Amino acid sequence: MDGSSGPAQAGLLLPMQGETIAAIATAIAPQQGSVGIVRLSGATAVAIARALFSAPGQQPWESHRILYGYVRDPRTQQTVDEALMLLMLAPRSYTREDVVEFHCHGGLMAVQQVLQLCLSQGARLAEPGEFTLRAFLNGRLDLTQAEGVADLVAAQSTLAAKTALSGVQGKLAQPIRQLRAACLDVLAEVEARIDFEDDLPALDEAWVRQQIDAVLCEVDRILATAESGELLRTGLKVAIVGRPNVGKSSLLNAWSRCDRAIVTDLPGTTRDVVESQLVVGGIPIQVLDTAGIRDASDPVEQMGIARSRQVALGADLVLLTLDATAGWTAADSVLYETVREGPSQGHRPLILVVNKVDLVSAEALERLNLPVDLPTVHTAAAQQRGIDALEGAILKAIQADQLTPANLEFTVNQRQEAALTQARNALQQVQQTIGNQLPLDFWTIDLRTAIAALGSITGDEVTESMLDEIFSRFCIGK
User: Fold this and answer.
1) How far apart (Å, rounded) are the C-alpha atoms in residues 87 and 220?
2) Higher pLDDT, 406 or 353
3) Which of 275, 370, 386, 434 is 20 to 30 A from 357 in CA distance terms?
């Protein structure tokens, strides 16, 4: 990252930046994590470090040098932790302020004690995303890069991480800035004709249309990544649905390659929804094994069945599973109609999974005469057969052939999609205004709207409320 970008309103929130902030920058949990990092950023970060850290010998306190020593309570001189300390002096730091990191022992106590010492020396506990917010305000990152940082932290697959990293590297900001510059050029030409009508040749209307058409084409290309980006960020919710004892739990276990669900020959063994997190073709998938749906007298089983129906209707994709030895039954027909209902009808794909094919002959399998026209996969979950075919069917169902690294250099999130849509609508309105032969002043209104919308994506035009909304979703310490 070259850090060459920055907000148009450079004074925004600057009073906040006079304070030194501190936070734990790594996840902490008892008996987990060998290293925990406490991060400081601000004008007094180095002074706080000198008050707390004792580096034996002649170790120089220089920027981008790691020092070994001890964190001590300056009031009692009691050693709190043996640690490493990293100095990163402005402007060569993440925030372009003086930054200090204490690399402590992991777990709960060491990092918590070091953080409390930093706060006792005058630092303030950082707000969520405040380190990255300062990086933005100081011109280290633009908004697309900042949001890429959040996406990279939250990535659940290698493909999600790859596209997030593209955002961090500014690959989304570059085309957005080019589009904004093109709109600014058009606006300048239009306004020049308004202000100096008698001194300039007539405006080339064909050139204006050509420029707007080119911008709209590129906006549409970028907008096309929104659905894929959302899928990579949030993942896909897949429900395994079927009658009792058709092998749903065995399918989940074979797919996740671990015994996530209890498997027995008794119908109704699964009483609640069992979840497993998988990655298929770079897409995070939450697989939900549901209780077998049937008429049950057991109150506990009834609760599980009710929950299964709810999960099935809320899933992005349903794997309707049946037993090859029993074939399609009347109960399967009822279940099929059930999962087709709901607010997602017509949009939620279904895949028919014919399980236990190892227990029937090929001739019997051909005679099943399935009454529904659905993508069909044959599996023998107990033998761990058919999983690759199932994953292929899922990828095909969600058109994941578009989710390839070559086609997804970057993606846009919901905020960026909304801004791009606003820009597109404004530019289409400019075209309509031109077609209606309205005065040039009307052209500028929608041109400015498009420019502002594009600027809000990168942060070239930004409001404090927008920043609050974006950075409040970050974790503390980032």
Assistant:
1) 45
2) 353
3) 275
